[in-house]
Specification:
The protein is an alpha/beta fold and about 325 residues long. It is built from 12 helices and 9 strands.
Length: about 325
């Protein structure tokens, strides 16, 4: 990669916590970009696994170490420590494609009004092999309205921001336990136009135990994010309608995830966590529970019946022990 002072510097911020074994792939994917100049800023978020040593083994890669504060705080630290005119956030277990920076900057050149640009991603398995290529509609107008209905951005790793836009947007919200990237994108779409293109810019590693599989966590986080949009949509009929549609979408999506989670917990005999998941489902999804696909509602009914049988069995066993 030959540096060029005539081109703007791009900073890629890589937060890392307990992912030192995958960090070389992430850093390598940035150093192999067809575009230069590029700056790599690794944020060691109090990781106990040698993240700093891995990062500093690459000449020119900067590493900022902090006590463990979570992904949002690590991204904020990395941004403050970066110098680029354009910024990307790449998770330590994901990878950029070789033409990612070049494709994003070309999109910026074609859309100078954009505060951020969005590309496509592929999903990969935990071992790095190809999994699938999900695709979202390309947004061309009404960015905030459309983002309220559903997140049209595959993942934060698919986004490049102008530094000036991030400076106006402020930090990722460290108080959110999840969905902080969606909240940031809603803020960005509210303040700036964006541009979307079809170049695959990143590879996102999927895990069966990922945060998005935690239905209860995501239901709570999405409720907070959507509740936070109310002051910005109030009084605008189109935005209010999009907001209602978005709240329904997230309740149904993560309601279904919560049912699967609850079903697994119950089958494993973890009745306490299964009950908590059920209560969260009822509280957050409410009447929409009846509108979920039958395959999901059927699991709820099965759990209720199983719970009654378990309860009767337990009472019977208790009575036998007492009689004995």
């Amino acid at each position: 990669m030959t540096p060029s002072t005539s081109k703007p510097l791009v900073s890629v911020v890589i937060p890392c916590y307990k992912q030192a074994h995958l960090l070389p792939e992430s850093i390598g994917s940035v150093l192999e970009q067809t575009y230069a100049p590029v700056e790599v800023v690794v944020v060691d978020d109090g990781s106990p696994d040698g993240t700093k040593e891995v990062a500093l083994s690459y000449p020119g890669v900067r590493c900022i170490r902090q006590k463990n504060q979570g992904l949002s705080a690590a991204r904020n630290t990395g941004f403050r420590g970066s110098r680029g005119k354009y910024i990307m956030f790449l998770d330590a277990d994901d990878r950029l494609t070789p033409h990612a920076l070049e494709a994003h900057l070309r999109c910026f050149a074609e859309h100078p009004e954009a505060g951020f640009v969005v590309g496509d991603i592929d999903h990969i398995e935990t071992d790095g092999s190809y999994r699938e290529s999900p695709r979202w509609p390309l947004l061309e107008a009404n960015f905030y309205e459309e983002m309220l209905r559903v997140n049209h951005v595959a993942n934060t790793i698919a986004v490049m921001f102008r530094r000036s836009a991030l400076e106006q947007l402020g930090d990722f919200d460290i108080s959110l336990p999840a969905a902080e990237d969606y909240e940031m994108l809603l803020r960005a779409a509210r303040l700036f136009p964006s541009a979307h293109h079809r170049t695959v810019v990143a590879q996102y590693r999927r895990y069966d135990a990922s945060m998005s599989k935690n239905g209860v966590l995501m239901l709570r986080a999405m409720q907070r994010v959507m509740y936070g949009q109310i002051p910005w949509v109030k009084g605008n009929a189109r935005l209010e309608a999009a907001h209602r549609r978005g709240r329904i979408y997230w309740r149904e999506r993560y309601g279904a995830v919560t049912i699967k989670e609850m079903y697994r917990l119950f089958r494993r005999g973890d009745l306490v966590r299964a009950t908590r998941a059920f209560l969260a489902l009822v509280w957050h999804v409410r009447e929409r529970l009846l509108l979920l696909p039958w395959k999901h509602r059927r699991r709820v009914f099965e759990l209720i019946r199983s719970g009654r049988n378990t309860s009767r069995h337990a009472r019977g066993q208790s009575r036998k022990a007492y009689d004995a």
